[in-house]
Design the sequence.
C-alpha cells in the first residue's frame, strides 16, 4: 500500500497548535504515513511541498482564524480537488457575566467562526475537505483541555477513513 504524504501547516501563538500538529504527525507516522510539520512563517503559501493531504491549523482570535493564517490561506496555490483537513484551537465557552448561563451551540456558532472561515477560504479554491476538528484550550494561553489527544486520534481516524 502506498504511503500517503501529509503536510501540516499551523499558526501557533502559545504553542497549543504546535502541540496538536506534532500529535497529528506522531499518530499519522504510527499509521505508516509520511508527515512533515511547518509553522506558516517557515514556508511560502504559493510554493507548498507536494502532498496527498494538507492539514491547516489556526488558533481563534476574536472568533476568526488568526490574521496570519487567513492571509496564508488566501495565498495558498494548490490544484483544484486537492484534499485538506483543518483544525482550530479555541477558548472554552464561558458563562455570560450577567446571567451566569452558558451560551447555546447556536450562539457559539455565531461567534466562533474559525473553522467556517478557513473552509470558505479553501473551498473558494475548489479544494476538497476531508475533515475538521476543534481543540479547546482552557484559557487564552492554554493548556489544551484534557481530552485533546483522544480528539486528535479521532481526527486522524476520520482522515484515514476518507483517504
Sequence:
Amino acid at each position: 500500500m502506498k504511503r500517503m504524504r501529509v503536510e501540516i501547516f499551523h499558526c501557533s501563538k502559545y504553542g497549543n497548535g504546535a502541540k496538536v500538529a506534532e500529535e497529528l504527525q506522531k499518530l499519522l507516522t504510527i499509521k505508516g504515513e509520511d508527515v512533515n510539520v511547518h509553522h506558516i512563517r517557515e514556508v511560502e503559501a504559493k510554493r507548498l511541498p507536494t502532498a496527498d493531504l494538507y492539514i491547516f491549523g489556526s488558533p481563534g482570535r476574536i472568533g476568526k482564524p488568526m490574521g496570519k493564517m487567513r492571509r496564508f490561506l488566501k495565498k495558498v496555490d494548490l490544484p483544484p480537488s486537492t484534499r485538506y483537513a483543518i483544525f482550530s484551537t479555541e477558548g472554552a465557552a464561558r458563562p455570560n457575566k450577567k446571567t451566569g448561563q452558558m451560551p447555546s451551540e447556536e450562539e457559539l456558532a455565531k461567534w466562533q467562526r474559525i473553522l467556517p472561515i478557513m473552509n470558505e477560504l479553501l473551498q473558494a479554491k475548489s479544494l476538497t475537505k476531508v475533515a475538521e476538528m476543534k481543540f479547546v484550550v482552557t484559557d487564552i494561553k492554554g493548556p489544551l483541555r484534557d481530552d485533546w489527544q483522544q480528539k486528535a486520534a479521532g481526527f486522524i481516524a476520520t482522515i484515514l477513513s476518507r483517504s
The chain has five helices and six strands. The mean pLDDT is 93. The CA atoms of residues 95 and 103 lie 7 Å apart. The first helix runs from residue 16 to 30.
